[in-house]
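Propose amino acids for all 298 sites.
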């Protein structure tokens, strides 16, 4: 996959003195901007300081950005936020090259520059620079991969769905682990394009069928169901809303991995799916995000 230079973007950049505060800021900013509004990159520098940059397609409300950062990390940080304009270049690729590989059980999510570092006994998912959510460096993605690793130790699903696929990282990881064809969907056409390209890059292009769909509306869901494993790394509200249609598309004893939840949202999501006949099997928290493993009753 060859990436193309993006237009000039607006950038907010600042440094934070510790990892915990940096993660709080990233979580707050991630929750505050819808997909496509902003892209966030963070990496650890010398002395344990974290450097955060937020790229916006349009000029942001600087006061609002300062307020969000202040809520997460304290008002003493807000005065150090620098706003500027980045000239047209492939800045997404440049920021992703600063990220280190992420390990989650047997899975490793990495960039092109770390391709040679994947051990032969691990499953690598190489995620190229793209304006779509899901590099694997977010706590929700890692939580899903850890739960997927847990599931595959004792279970081999045959009909798999990645709902809200983003860059395709979960679909690619599942396809490479199982060597089966699976369905991946996203409401965003850019994400679908990126997922397809990333699947080809990872040698899973024939295995991952990425489609654009809202919820379960596309005919492919009816022809592929019943699913015995669903991966859905989205957000709490859409996950609650999709509990009923998802349950209708599940096989008996199907497993569902849900993420994109803040810890205080997990209970309401569990309740929505429990009302549709699913029970909670595992709940993990990583970097301030909850990931759930649920099973449909027989």
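Proposal:
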């Amino acid at each position: 996959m060859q990436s193309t230079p993006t237009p000039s973007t607006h950038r907010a950049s600042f440094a934070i003195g510790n990892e915990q505060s940096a993660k709080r800021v990233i979580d707050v900013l991630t929750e505050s901007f819808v997909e496509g509004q902003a892209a966030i990159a963070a990496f650890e520098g010398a002395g344990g300081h974290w450097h955060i940059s937020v790229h916006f397609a349009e000029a942001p409300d600087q006061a609002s950005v300062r307020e969000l950062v202040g809520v997460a990390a304290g008002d003493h940080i807000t005065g150090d936020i620098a706003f500027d304009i980045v000239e047209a270049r492939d800045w997404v690729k440049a920021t992703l090259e600063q990220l280190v590989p992420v390990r989650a059980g047997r899975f490793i999510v990495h960039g092109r520059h770390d391709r040679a570092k994947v051990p032969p006994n691990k499953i690598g998912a190489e995620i190229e620079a793209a304006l779509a959510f899901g590099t694997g460096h977010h706590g929700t993605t890692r939580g899903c991969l850890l739960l997927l690793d847990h599931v595959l130790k004792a279970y081999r699903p045959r009909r798999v769905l990645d709902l809200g696929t983003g860059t395709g990282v979960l679909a690619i990881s599942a396809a490479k682990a199982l060597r089966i064809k699976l369905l991946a969907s996203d409401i965003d056409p850019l994400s679908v394009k990126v997922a397809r390209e990333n699947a080809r890059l990872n040698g899973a292009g024939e295995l991952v069928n990425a489609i654009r769909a809202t919820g379960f509306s596309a005919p492919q869901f009816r022809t592929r169901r019943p699913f015995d494993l669903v991966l859905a790394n989205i957000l709490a509200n859409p996950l609650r809303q999709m509990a009923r249609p998802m349950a209708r598309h599940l096989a008996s004893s199907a497993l569902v991995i849900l993420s994109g939840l803040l810890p205080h949202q997990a209970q309401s999501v569990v309740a929505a799916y429990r009302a549709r006949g699913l029970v909670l099997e595992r709940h993990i928290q990583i970097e301030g995000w909850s990931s759930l493993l649920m099973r449909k009753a027989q």
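The chain is about 35% helix and 30% strand. The chain has a mean pLDDT of 86.
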